[in-house]
């Protein structure tokens, strides 16, 4: 699990400074988060490969047919 280190801490014998990110086991992540020394890191957003080109003209709408309505003329 990826965590952001909030306070300096030793992880598996290696120092981790505040503001850094580390990939740790789920158990280690839960312990660090519980001690207030880390928080779950947000997943980095992947950049879009190609931005969408804006549409220059709106697509034409299909012409609507008039709806049939009941005749309101009185029956004879």
Description:
A three-stranded antiparallel β-sheet has the order 4-1-5, with helices on one face. Strands 2-3 form a two-stranded antiparallel sheet. The protein has a domain at 2-40. The longest helix is centred in the middle third of the chain and has 9 residues, at 26-34. The chain is elongated, with a radius of gyration of 31 Å. It has 76 residues and is α+β, with helices and mostly antiparallel strands. The chain contains one helix and five strands; from the N terminus they run E-E-E-E-H-E.
The oligomeric status of these chains comes to single chain
Mean pLDDT: 82
For the CA atoms, what is the radius of gyration? 31 Å
Main β sheet profile? 3 strands, antiparallel
Label the overall shape.
Answer: elongated
Low-pLDDT residue spans? none
Helix fraction bin:
10-25%
Strand content: 15-25%
Strand element count: 5
Listing every helix as H and every strand as E from the N terminus to the C terminus, the arrangement reads EEEEHE
Q: Strand order, main sheet: write it out.
A: 4-1-5
| Count of helix runs | 1
Structural class: alpha+beta
Distance between the termini: 80 Å
């Amino acid at each position: 699990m990826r965590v952001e280190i909030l306070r300096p801490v030793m992880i598996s014998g290696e120092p981790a400074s505040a503001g850094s990110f580390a990939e740790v086991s789920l158990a280690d992540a839960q312990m660090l988060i519980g001690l207030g020394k880390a928080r779950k890191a947000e997943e980095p957003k992947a950049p879009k490969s190609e931005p969408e080109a804006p549409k220059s003209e709106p697509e034409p709408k299909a012409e609507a047919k008039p709806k049939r309505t009941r005749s309101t003329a009185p029956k004879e």
